[in-house]
Design brief:
Length: 133
């Protein structure tokens, strides 16, 4: 497996990835996704024999806060350590950031994955997350 910067924007490849995991909010707005990738703090891809397995995208300032916005893997590559490798690559690039955050589905599977990498539920700190609809 090769983890490297995701450069350029292969619309067909990325839309296929987002569609494969049901993130259709992005697939209907390809122009927004293109701009999101262009303005991200970091985008990395995981590759096997030159084929994209998944991506991670982070936003923020890189010093006080980094938000892992997207961590997506084609279903065939899930549960094979690819997501862990991508997330560790983000952690390695920002070892001293004050806050490294992410939002995800509230499922036992996601909780187990992220806590295994040192993340804690913000409720532990008496925090809540809010989103403008």
């Amino acid at each position: 497996m090769d983890i490297r910067p995701y450069e350029g924007f292969d619309e067909a490849e990325l839309l296929s990835l987002y569609e494969s995991v049901g993130w259709t909010n992005y697939t209907g707005r390809a122009d927004m996704l293109r701009e999101a990738f262009a303005h991200s703090l970091l985008t990395l891809g995981a590759y096997e024999d030159g084929k994209l397995m998944g991506v991670v995208r982070a936003v923020g300032d890189g010093y006080s806060v980094v938000l892992v916005q997207d961590l997506l893997l084609f279903p065939a590559y899930q549960h094979r350590g690819v997501g862990t490798a991508l997330l560790r690559a983000v952690l390695d690039r920002f070892p001293d950031v004050y806050q490294l955050q992410l939002l995800t589905d509230d499922t036992p599977e996601h909780a187990a994955f992220y806590t295994s990498l040192g993340f804690v539920n913000v409720a532990k700190y008496g925090c809540a997350a809010y989103q403008r609809a």
